[in-house]
Write a structure and sequence with these properties.
The structure is a homotetramer of 366-residue chains. With 366 residues, chain A is an alpha+beta fold. Chain A has eight helices and 18 strands. Chain A is globular. Chain A starts with a strand and ends with a helix. Chains in contact: A-B, A-C, A-D, B-C, B-D, C-D. At the C-D interface, strand 1, helix 2, helix 6, strand 11 and strand 12 of C face strand 1, helix 2, helix 6, strand 11 and strand 12 of D.
Chain lengths: 366, 366, 366, 366
């Protein structure tokens, strides 16, 4: 319980450090009989791969996934699915100097406080490369959800001051723009903004939004395992995320009830809602509308301008971070948000299977 | 795993419905030897009790706690602490009509979708009374944290458009104002604002802030069990919370790295920070500074003005909610946020006990 | 995680001490819609009640169960079912002297070693009364299993040297004999044997067997959550049990494979087995045959003859136990074994619901 | 939660099939700062390697472990330790015929019943090769326990009718005899017995005993997480084990209390026991004496003589198993029992860290 597992029934355990031999994940609890190939995983991993654009680190990693167990004849067997990606482009020497001091905004100091020492190379376990396992597992979860018509769409909503225009929403642009913005015009502006950041040896933050469509009403539990509570944890567990919103989020705090309640009405024999301020979740349980969440991501803490800090000897020093760093975390974190949402909803889908006697009667009908 | 348990080592299980016989909680995993009396619990429960002010429901409940197990000679024994509060003022007849329709903004519809039927009386398990068990358990957690010099302070930061002035911060006012605002002037304005809401048969939302002081560096884990991830879940699991922020929260997304990193320096032989944008957590692990979080709470969904909805027969209807309802959830949720934060940090304290060999050597030194 | 919870999805948490205010259990994860009344629980509790026969303690407890939550209109709601039994006949003064020394064969010493002190009254949490919560929860599990045609039958197989004759098996006798033996003749002999034990201030051990019929093939998981592994834990977690067997148990170790394998054949279109040495479980998964297990129970450690021990001051002393003690644990533990088996199989039934895509398709078919 | 994880704080997740690409384990929750090398693991893995003696399968596997994460500069970092062994000697063609029928005594039928299909090659996940991950993880646990002076000694107690003579106990013989018997004379007899079995195309069962020395009093919890309950689960989760005993085990059922209680007395200021019928555990908590347990192992179900069974088409057929099979499971399972015991006790050691306030005060003393 050092905390590298996530999920109750659809349960994953990730492992690996930035500059270790490899990174990976074990997915336990995926139902048997799901069609699954390495290609299904690779498509997701490619979306978080470094070295693809001007605004991402020049570190090049193939991040080629190997499925080591749990899949037979291109279907899941119900046993643990172990997946691994080898690290191939570690430049550990870049990091030898950070062994001795604490980078501001990073986990160097807290790791030392907790464990007494740390694998300092590239941030070790606190590196963004840790998300490799999450994304591989998220791809399996998304594949499962697809069987039930549930789809996820995460994208960059804003970078610094540049916000997308939802009226120009272009789904394809999420994968084709370097910013993962679904609005190509905004993306061009954001790239210019980021070029400025880099010129001034600085970095930027932004917002990621994720929509989940097709979720049946009834997923999530009433108290601690609320679907929104688990989504909040899932997303806040991604390094650099400092706030999470569900539906209208922070905006609800300044509203009246009359302007925040979503009216129900009947449409084609279904209970639907006139608005979706709630973001698809009522009382912790999905209501059948679109689930919508947002993650607020801090600027990359590794900046090249000089900063004040301390070293392990307890001396005040000034440092300038070196190495390969993205000026922004957001674009590569988009698929991580999508993966974490997929994992959370897949788990809720499985947890709900035993929620009522009627479900079990369908399964164990003899 | 219907989700009524919270925590990994310091683990609680709550139970009870708004109009059932009683509500309660079992706290398992509290260390033996902690001084604890019913009075320690009652002080917390009194802070969430209904029927105390003009802006809370007229339902009167003594909410007198009974400790049924796990405490002997005023100390915890290490075995489960079972605590219970009897319901005494149920007016179930008030709710008989909602048995048949779905209140907007409530969990009526989603409960029916999930379970096939529901205890509709007073919202059943989705009522705010569900938090009774959380608060009782949170009082135990807070008592444990006090042994280590860790203190929690939650308060109302804003109600509708009224925001407290931090320069006027008065800790005592949290307990003495009906709004739980630490700024008596703001509180008076907020009361006037709420009186307006009630006159127009409407309700309001607001923001709760919680500060945790004295947390040692090293609590929380690096990946899924990040301290901020667990705080986010803890707080988002409280009904009506729609957004959670850690430290500067949403604001970080529009910043540059140079303006968001907290510089380290040495003070009295300790590593400290010049600023605390991070809210006391780096890489999911406490850094020794104050932990700061905020919960954004939606307006009470039960409003007395007419609303559109559907009934169980699938007919579109118009309803006006009756019963006893607060015009705002925030003041009574303040202690719930504090309780959930206390539970999360107590659990992290225990989880961290086995984080390094050095800790175990201190315990098992023979 | 002080270990008072059991089960993964059908999850229970017990609480309470022998001489505290009450004992109880919270059942979380029971599917909604299950018909359930207090009477269903009481029938089970009555089977473990003290004070019923000459061979059980004269302590009289009504053990009247109160269902405090989770049941509405005589059906489970899917939310936690909290059940409680008040202690009414504590004679705490009987135990005041054991506060100061360690009874041989009891947990007095180990509790002090672990927690630093203990609720010594009647053994506190280590008393047989702790099983009250297990039995109440087991009654719910058994009620759930009954919906699927799964039935459990536990009984006393032997007491000291007296073993039942399976050819005389009389199911009704389990409930009508004071020994819970399904063989009335053996029961009479066992009573005489126990009377001798009591006359010589001594106690006796015995064996409990439990058969589970109607379990569909497919329950249990292949590695750590094997159905037999969980049954072993469930049964070994009952105080005084020192060995557990599945199917032919210890006998298999001296067999050849040819004499231990169960041949499969077809019968009425079903795969069945010629023999059942395996006790209904292959590779940790139920095979559709009867599940059979045995628990070996030690003699009551509280005996009235003098024994050597030490006190808290570290002095060697001699003691003669006083108080109210059964000369044998077995008969009252029979229903506890049945309850633990029911809980384990109910949990396996729920865990298996998500084992294959085909199951989920039946539930989420739209 | 397909059940491939074990442990509460010291938590492992195993993965891999007999004829897949690799097998492995992720150990999460191991304290930071523990000295650990691949050699520490390899020593354990070598003890379960196939192809070493006449009485084990001719399948040759290097079973060379690769540590992929969680260890830096030969010490554990507190992050997940991922370990892997490549499969190199799969002869999958040997198994193609069993794709279509159910081997008696194996999990073929139950896997199909549960998952709808299976990786039939070499038994897939139900193969004895699944224990590779357990043993690698057990080596880490044993390394941790060694820091606290806790040592484990597992060995073969009997094979068929041949039982070791405890008076001839020779610890070195465990590693040097092909039977893992600590009595070389008995080992020679057992080898002759097994040669007979092989000649008659049959197999044999036996008993494994495991002693754990140096366990401090206080490990284990009072109710469901009893140390003996967890040991029972741990050992029963090993394929082919059908009974588990703690201390005197089944023998206690026919004893009187006066002959089964272990008297306490003082020795060098310590509370010790005159006898150890209890096997070092009272009320689920270690008492400071040697912990002793036994596993009863069934004969290898794969035998070369003809057997009756059914195929997937539901036809009665007769089969003779082919392939590479040990005539006995016991010797190679000895290290697996030791590993599972080590994992269980390491977990109990960590769980106990938070059992009393006094422990935490030692850690968080500021």
């Amino acid at each position: 319980m050092a905390g590298s597992s996530y999920g109750n029934i659809f349960q994953i355990t990730t492992w690996g450090e930035s500059h270790g031999a490899a990174l990976g994940v074990v997915v336990d609890g995926c139902p048997a009989g799901l069609p699954l190939t390495a290609e299904d995983i690779q498509i997701y991993l490619n979306r978080r791969k470094p070295g693809q654009t001007r605004i991402s680190t020049p570190r090049k990693e193939a991040d080629q996934v190997e499925i080591l167990s749990g899949v037979f004849a291109d279907r899941t067997t119900g046993t643990p699915i172990s997946m691994m990606v080898r690290n191939t482009s570690q430049h550990s020497s870049d990091y030898s100097e950070i062994a001795n001091y604490y980078r501001p905004g990073h986990a160097d100091y807290t790791f030392d406080a907790k464990y007494g020492f740390r694998d300092y190379r590239g941030g070790g376990r606190s590196s963004g490369r840790e998300t490799t396992g999450r994304v591989a597992a998220g791809a399996v979860a998304a594949r499962l959800l697809a069987e039930f018509g549930i789809t996820l769409t995460a994208y960059t909503k804003s970078i610094g001051p540049i916000v997308i225009d939802m009226d120009k929403f272009d789904r394809d642009a999420i994968l084709s723009t370097p910013t993962c913005m679904p609005d190509p015009d905004a993306s061009i502006q954001a790239e210019a903004f980021l070029a400025d950041c880099m010129r001034s040896y600085d970095s930027a933050g932004g917002v990621i939004e994720c929509a989940v469509d097709g979720v049946p009403a009834g997923l999530g539990d009433p108290v601690f395992e609320k679907l929104d509570a688990n989504l909040a944890k899932a997303v806040m567990s991604i390094g650099a995320v400092k706030a999470v919103e569900i539906g209208d989020g922070t905006a609800v705090a300044s509203r009246h009830g009359s302007g925040n309640n979503d009216a129900f009405y009947m449409q084609d024999g279904q209970v639907v809602k006139r608005t979706n301020h709630a973001g698809g979740i009522l009382g912790g349980i999905s209501d059948g509308s679109q689930i919508l969440l947002r993650a607020y991501v801090k600027p990359t803490p590794s900046i090249f301008s000089p900063q004040e800090t301390v070293n392990k000897q307890g001396e005040n020093i000034e440092v300038s971070i070196k190495g390969r760093h993205d000026p922004i975390i957001v674009p590569r974190a988009v698929v991580v948000v999508e993966a974490m949402a997929a994992l959370t909803i897949a788990d809720a889908l499985l947890m709900n299977a035993g929620a009522k006697l009627e479900h079990l009667k369908k399964i164990y009908d003899r």
